[in-house]
Amino acid sequence: MKTVLVVEDDKNLRELMYRALRGSYRILWAENRLETIQIIEKNRVDLVLLDLRLPPATGTSQEGMKALEEIGRIDSEIKVVVMTGDRGKETSLKAIEKGAHDYFPKPFDLEEMKIVIKRALHIQTLERENQRLRQRLSRKVGLHNIISGSHKMKLVLDLIRTVAQSDCTVLIRGETGTGKDMVAEAIHYSGPRRNQSFIPLNCAAIPETLLESELFGYEKGAFTDATGAKPGKFELASGGTLFMDEIGDMSLALQSKILRVIQNRSFERLGGTKSMEVNSRLIAATNKNLEELVAKESFREDLYYRLNVVSIHLPPLRERKEDIPLLVNHFLNKYNKTGSKAAKGVSSRALELLVDYDWPGNVRELENVIERAIVLRQDEMLLARSIFLQAGEKSLPSKIVSRSAHTSLAETERRLIEKTLEATQWSKTEAAKLLGIHRNTLGRKIKDFNIHRE
Description:
The protein has 454 residues and is of the alpha/beta class.
């Protein structure tokens, strides 16, 4: 139900408007500018019916105009409909210039007022939906943003599609850089809450002293610097999804409070007494072994079971190397769009190095390597000399030292062509592009190596 705030110092008129609107909206009311701002800071308000002649300056529209400007600064999505007793339209038009959505003069017709409110809220709904759609398109989130061709990742995608349609809590597990945040987004934007907010929170990036207020919000005066009320992540994610990344880094004290929220489906802001209902889906992620943390009593066992309703394990990149050519092509296209000079492709030797490397930083490291190679390259293509990998990790030269150069290179080239063809589902055009060779050259090599599609 939409919330309408009536700002009117005339008690009889407030009661009249309350009786007219209470069946359709949740009604709040205020008598002056200060009360108006306090209510908006503590409540989600959709529309304000604002009398411009407010105390203490009831003879002018000064207080009403100030209230209008402050409402816009706090929440620009709130629709404000002003009421004025001025006979002329000058004051009303000035209010429109300052951000009011509409106006009507006093005395007014209740049915006309209802129509104005209904129309304003309908426009607000369309604007919010349009904003969500723009956010989804700009971020390109969802299953289509997960680049994969390997069997292991296909199983992960199947599981994402299944859990996305429910409201169950999901625990995403995997090493740093495997894309846990992208999986969380894919679950949210593939499910029934896709048109609501997706609120991410990295538990390891926020100091322990601030994390609680970030989660639950606070009231004015809750602590020294709390000069105003602020909603927390649970509140902001209402109707949508709260994604808590690196939850294994959370203290036991805060774990206990999270557990209570999950069990009771409610919480209170810091310094507040009003209980707020939780209507958000919870997705958690960690790169740590929670079972070991539970055994060491540094992670609550009861919270572990609450979070681990459905567990999704993301395999490291070294276990799905057939995805590397696809990822390389994806990042190549991505950074070609942002750079001044596009790279035409990746040489066979450079791709060999990338495929044979173990990627301790996973997909995130691969993206960084490709971005750096594009920036520092001096040739039209990305060559092996443009690829900088961490020393000490397994790479191609260490594996072929004991073999004859001719045999090793031939075997490596054959293996690379086979993997690239498999990754592109035997699209010779796409495979040739990834390998940095002409399609006819690829066809000749397939024939020379006697490569057949299984």
